[in-house]
Each structure stands twice: as structure tokens, then as C-alpha cells.
Amino acid sequence: MASAPGKGGLRRTLRSCEYGCQFVAHDSPVHRLSAGMKLGIGMLLSASAAGGRTPATLGALVLVTLCYYLAARLTLADLWRDIRLFMFQAALVIPLYCLVHGPAKGLWPGIRISTQIILFYLPGAVFLRTTRSSEVMRGLRRVLPYRVSFLVFVSVRFVPFFFREIADITAAQRLRGARLLPRQKLNPRNWPDLFNCLILPLMVRALKTADEVARSAESRGFGMYPERTFFSADQLIRRAGDTGTAQQGEPSAPTIRTAASNSTVSS
């Protein structure tokens, strides 16, 4: 009979089940913001990252984005899970710039491009980690048709799903002998394994998942009517609460108590 994992093993197991861009329920200032406000802040930070060119500007943006990330009560371990793929990308981009333009002219452009990519993506990760699905749909349907809002919502929610898929496919292919360790991915001789054993299966899984989502939505009658065909749980709870309050506020029928019979007669 297998023994139960120790405290350290259980902690490692729980850590291995966590993926990037997953919603985390915390009571933080960022969580208390509306979905539209967080979306506006994210768009502003991403646009600033795309326009940053000087080291001072990028340094200030890194500081502001980190403060925004940590204000959501997210840890440095969460930050690493969210940006680790982009760190591997930076490890490829910077040497390529140095190889093409030389270390003197290529080092800063490589660092700048890699930093801009991470800063452009990170506000979106904060949005996914701090916003519930119902809040996203409620905010999107105010400005978009419900079909478009559903498409945007599903596309955004696929991000943590594909992080899990990448981890599962990588673990399975490594057991089959594929060279997919982080340090092995930096070697160009191992890039065929990266493409054949990770990218192609991920594309097949993505197409299969998209087909399953489309069939599921079609079987539920999605798109048959010009308006949304699902109920809002928040509105249902709110209406039930208003109905209960109204019933409690209604005056009760007057009662007359007689002294002789000590009985109550309602008019």
C-alpha cells in the first residue's frame, strides 16, 4: 500500500497543479475593481509598453506593472507561472539580436523587445487572475452583442486551459524521450522535437477543443434567437431578494381579539 506523501511532497504536488492565468479569489484592491476598470487599466499599461523605447521609460513601466500585479495579492511564484514562457522566449530573442547585430548594437534592442512583450501581456494576466467569468460576461454584454461577447470570453478563458495542456503534453512527451526540458529547448538541434512533440499536438488539441465547444453551444440552442438565451444568476438572486423584501413590507391584516372567547378574528 502506497504511503501518503509527506508535507513537502504534498506542497510540491499542490504547486504542480497550479497553472498560469488562473482566477485566484482574494480580497484585494484590484479584485474589487469592476471588469471594465481593470480592462481599461490593462489597455493603458499595454499601450504604454508598446510605446516605450528608452531604458528609463521601460524601467518605470516595469515598476508600475509590478505594483499593479502585487496589489492583487499575487505572489512572485504566480508571476513566474504567468511569464515563464516569455522568459524562455527572451532567452532566444536576445542572443539572436546579438548574433545578427553584434553584442554592442543588439543587446539593448533584444532586451527592449523582450521586456515590451512581457509588459504587454502581464496586465491581461492580472485581468484573468482577478476577474470572475460572470463579471467578464456582464461587462462585455453592455458594449458588444452577446454572440461577440461570448466569443471574446471563450477566447480569453482558453488561455489558462492551454497552459495546462502545454504542461500535460510536455510531461507525456518527455516520458516518451522527447527533449523538452527548458535548457534543451534553447538548443536548435532539439527544435524538431519542440515542433513535432509539443506544437503540433497542441494545435490538434486546440482544434478538437474548439469543435467540442461549438457543438456544445449548438446543442444548447446558442444563436437561435437574436437575444441571449441564458439567465443571469445575479439578476435572479437580486429579483428574489426584492420580492422577499416587498412581501415582508406588506401590512398584515388587522386582528380583533375578543375578551369573552379569547379568540382572534381576522378581517
UniProtKB/TrEMBL annotation:
Residues 258-267 have a biased composition (Polar residues). Pfam families: CbiQ. It is found in: Membrane. One of its GO terms (cellular component) is plasma membrane. Residues 241-267 are annotated as: Disordered. The chain crosses the membrane at residues 54-71, 83-104, 110-131, 143-163. This is Energy-coupling factor transporter transmembrane protein EcfT. The lineage of its organism: Bacteria, Pseudomonadati, Thermodesulfobacteriota, Desulfuromonadia, Geobacterales.
